[in-house]
Design brief:
Elements: E1 6-7, E2 32-36, E3 41-46, E4 49-50, H1 71-82, E5 86-90, E6 106-110, H2 118-121, E7 129-133, H3 137-146, E8 155-160, H4 166-178, E9 180-189, H5 217-224, E10 230-233, E11 241-245, H6 250-255, H7 258-267, H8 270-280, H9 287-294, H10 306-315
Parallel strand pairs: 5-6, 5-8, 6-7, 8-9
Antiparallel strand pairs: 1-7, 2-3, 3-4, 9-11, 10-11
Length: about 325
């Protein structure tokens, strides 16, 4: 297909348009507590719905790092909770996160040079519908938009882990938002580099992690697009997670001021930004994150209570 190559798990089957998961008013139930497996979240549910926790940033010095979950496990738990029908991942590498359980109904993976592990690659045929685009993210999104390859589908969940340059990540966020439904979640990896070497624009000539200057998208969005709901989660090794909830016109919000955003990111000081980010970061097991994620839970299946929804998600 044009400059990039897209493949589907089973070309003989039509790409069906799954029902949308637009948020609706949460159903009321009487005094039950929902324990979201592994995260230790407890949300009190009343006739008014899930009570919102105050978005108070946590002092990271008090985070119990022994209870942290890595990004693969974290994203798998998010899939269980959100039950996305359509999932986009940029920077699929070995495919570990792309095809982690539970696998969504429709999966789009973008990477110019994916290197599937054998045990992961064999799962490709198990996906109901998949599209692997061997292309840069800019080219892939141009193709997705111009050719309407998704039809009427809207993305429910996206993971950005592509080229580790802040301006590219910012465009990836904009393009994911453009293809997403209201209240979808976009997860951005590599936002807590351990030092300036890991945060350099070029991979270091020595063993170790390289996260690039992805972290700069966090203060840029806080400064120029503070109307976008976000949370910053620190205890998701190896490099934290920045989560955005879609709503409004994020694509044009970013692209119409892209030069200002890029200029600001070029001026950010590593130490100062890290200090601000760590002061505002929360834990993966915190009530503020539970409240944030709850806002993005889609439409409950007909006849299913909130408690049943969570139980089914945990057991999937």
């Amino acid at each position: 297909m044009c400059a990039s190559t897209a493949t589907r798990a089973d070309a003989s089957r039509p790409i069906d348009v799954a029902r949308p998961c637009y948020p609706i008013e949460k159903p009321g139930t009487d005094a039950i507590k929902l324990l979201v497996g592994g995260f230790g979240w407890i949300a009190s549910v009343s006739s008014r719905g899930v009570k919102k926790a105050s978005s108070v940033a946590l002092n990271t010095a008090h985070i119990d790092w022994r209870s942290s979950v890595d990004h693969v496990e974290f994203l798998a738990k998010m899939k269980r909770i959100l039950r996305p029908n359509t999932y986009i991942e940029i920077g699929i590498a070995s495919g570990t996160t792309l095809f982690s359980d539970p696998i969504p109904n429709f999966v789009i993976g973008i990477d110019p040079n994916p290197a599937f592990e054998s045990k992961v690659g064999s799962r490709l045929n198990a996906v109901h519908n998949s599209m692997i685009m061997r292309s840069t993210s800019d080219n892939a999104f141009a193709q997705l938009s111009s050719q309407r390859l998704l039809g009427d589908r809207k993305c429910d969940m996206a993971f950005v882990d592509g080229l580790h340059h802040c301006e590219v990540v910012l465009r990836d966020i904009a393009n994911c938002a453009r293809l997403s439904r209201e209240h979808a979640l976009i997860f951005v990896h590599d936002i807590f580099p351990g030092n300036e070497i890991e945060a350099s624009r070029q991979p270091p000539n020595q063993p170790g992690s390289w996260m690039g200057d992805v972290y700069k998208v966090v203060p840029a969005i806080w400064q120029f697009l503070d109307w976008i709901p976000t949370v910053l989660v620190v205890d998701v090794p190896p490099s934290g997670m920045f989560i955005l909830r879609t709503g409004g016109d994020i694509y044009n919000g970013i692209m119409k001021q892209i030069q200002n955003l890029e200029a600001a990111m070029a001026s950010y000081d590593f130490a100062s930004v890290m200090q601000e980010m760590r002061a505002k970061a929360i834990s993966h097991s915190s009530r503020p994150l539970a409240a944030f994620i709850e806002e993005s839970i889609g439409e409950l299946p007909e006849g299913e209570t909130a408690a049943q929804f969570l139980i089914c998600s945990m057991m999937s």
